[in-house]
Amino acid sequence: MTTTTQQTTTGSPGEGPRLKSEGLYTRTLPGYFPPALLAACGIVVSGVFVLFGGFHPVPVVVVSALVFLAAITGISASVENRRRAADRLVTGIVYCCFAVAIIPLISLLTTVVINGMDRLNWYFLTVSMNGVIPSMDAGGVNHAIVGTLVMTGLATAISVPIGLMTAVYVVEYGRGRLKQAITFFVDVMTGIPSIVAGLFVVALWILLFGPGNTNGLAGAIALSVLMIPVVVRSSEEMLRLVPTELREASYALGVPKWLTIVKVVLPTAVAGLTTGIILALARVIGETAPLILTAGMASTRIQGNPLEGDMMSLPVYIYKAVRDMGLSGEAGVYAEERAWAAALTLILLVMLLFLTARLVSRFLSPQARG
């Protein structure tokens, strides 16, 4: 039972004295108690499962989490108070949800790293599959890396100006039905399946150049169709976060609106804009279906010109390798090794792009420029 004392305090003018209840001491669980209780619950639950001969990691973790939540809530309610108990319960649920979300990611990365490190080396990264047959223990992924960089680079060069200027119009200038129409169609385009974007570009290419003309430029256009709405939505949200006071201060100094956007709004939001662009790039760098239709999948040599026929990409390379896993003998084994190594290469490439974007946004931010 918590001992309390009553204190007389002076209220605001016109009010009488108020009574303030203060605790002489507050009982609180020590900081090490929740992790210790979690470990104890895990040990006890594991022992019970072993005792009954049905030990398995997944049910042990689930049951341990449920027992821990019930135990920490009951102990906190009896030792502390109901409010702290509810807080500990909700905090435990949040941590459990985080673990549920992060476990598949860790499992995926671990699987790709373990299986991909066997073949991932400098030779694999610097040679192509030109002249290599499936049964040969040779070849690499260099042509797919070059194709991925070329097509995603072109897609970024197409999508970023269009998406950024559209977001600027919607946030700074847009009014009435035109703004609503742009927002509506951007939302619709965000949910378009990637295969539909590929079919759209194929139909456009057939009308312009005739059937069978697949190349890297067509693949880049297909990726830009998927990338533009993501850039628009992310840039729009970042521009809305710029305080209105900054714009008004610039207007008060007589700076025109377009110059305020260029010199004040965009530099202030550059970190968020860069993050949104990289998220859009990560959205399209792993697309396979539109590139099979538009860029083809027959190229085995290093191709840096997007207008000279088929261009290979890392997702399509992985798709071809997985398809070749059904071959008999050593060809299937080599194809599986190439698929895992190419998947690891794609993950590393995306991580490198994210790191580069973070560095660029840090150097371009107003704080870094002084």
TrEMBL record:
It is found in: Cell membrane. This is Phosphate transport system permease protein PstA. Keywords: Cell membrane, Membrane, Phosphate transport, Transmembrane, Transmembrane helix, Transport. It comes from Streptomonospora litoralis. The chain crosses the membrane at residues 32-52, 58-77, 89-114, 144-170, 182-208, 214-232, 264-285, 339-360. It comes from the Bacteria. Residues 1-21 are annotated as: Disordered. It holds the Pfam family BPD_transp_1. GO terms for biological process: phosphate ion transmembrane transport. It is a multi-pass membrane protein. Gene3D superfamilies: MetI-like (1.10.3720.10). Residues 145-357 form the ABC transmembrane type-1 domain. SUPFAM superfamilies: MetI-like (SSF161098).
